Known about the structure:
The structure is a single chain. With 206 residues, this protein is of the alpha+beta class. It has helices at residues 12-24, 77-81, 113-127, 133-140; strands at 8-11, 33-40, 52-55, 60-63, 70-71, 85-88, 95-102, 110-112, 155-156, 161-168, 171-174, 184-185, 199-204. Strands 1-6-3-4 form a four-stranded antiparallel beta sheet. The protein has a four-stranded antiparallel beta sheet with strand order 8-13-10-11.
Amino acid sequence: MAGIRDPELKAYRTMVKGLDAFDLERARAPKAALRFLLRPAATGETLDGLTLTISGDTVSLPVELAADGGFVLPRSAAALADRAELVLNKKRNSFRWRPDVRSPGVPANARRLGDLRLQCAVQWAIDREALTPQARGALEANGGPCHSPLAHTAFEAPQALRAAWLREGSRREALPVNRQHARRFTPPLADGGWGDDAMVEFEYGT
């Protein structure tokens, strides 16, 4: 399948919107790094042998994939000008992606709230490009999925959760956990009463 551009993941210019959002809201997580993670979306697919290329008519930039399917998206003026796409060597829709924002020093069983807020901003900057103007306007009228108190944006923990807690200083509050999808939790992204340094702590179990 090498050289075939049909298995498109995303347009490069669309993914760059996420890089721009990360830079714009970097104050929420000044020391954080942004990666993107690829995960199998089709039965039987694995990360084995997976390759990712920024591919256009004249541009071909291999993107290094880590063992966990993570990658750092480089900026390239040439790829933008060439209207390049992110192309996998797998069938279309066989993999899904998501951004991953991490500050150093956060325990493995926790997520920093500011990181999640910034991760949401990156995701929304990319996803909004696929919406109609009407749908985009309706979502943004109340602040969008990252800033509206009406939005309930879920994230995935590394393992199935028994509970998730938001902690800041002596304050501690239970977070909603999805009982059908036990790895998903919903933090209060739009609640300014919680600072960016607040921690979501995971209690694993079934």
